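Input sequence (156 aa), recorded before submission:
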Amino acid sequence: MSARLADDELLISRTFDAPAALMFELWTDPAHFKNWMGPGKYECRHAEIELRVGGAYRGMIYADDTGESWFGGIYREIEQPSRLVFTFKWDTGPSGELETLVTITFREERDGRTTMTFHQSPFINVERRDAHVGGWNGAFDKFGAYAEKRSKEKTQ
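Predicted structure, token format:
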């Protein structure tokens, strides 16, 4: 029996046709990160990553109708290629926006696919949490397509 999530927690689990090492790289290499970060119409125009415990990352997603949205945080744990833990905070957003903690695990399956589990908390309210569900799933749609493309390129 799994534990019930609190109202201030977000949990997304998705399986992709790519190895864990590649998926870890897509999260930690700015050249790759810029190719998928941001839901739908958003494009990631800036990514800086200092991949070490205590290192910072900073990014910016952009859409014509909303302009620039900057975010960043600090790496807390790095276990290549299976786990990343970092803080996340929007530079702009609703008053009282909290810094959240993101934990991502990558578990390779027997069929060469990898399950990515994404956990983020705490959120100031259920509405902010739910707004992130759509945003992250939109970004993960792009992540999956990019990961599968890169995985196929590496095997050819």
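Checked by second reader. The mean pLDDT is 92.
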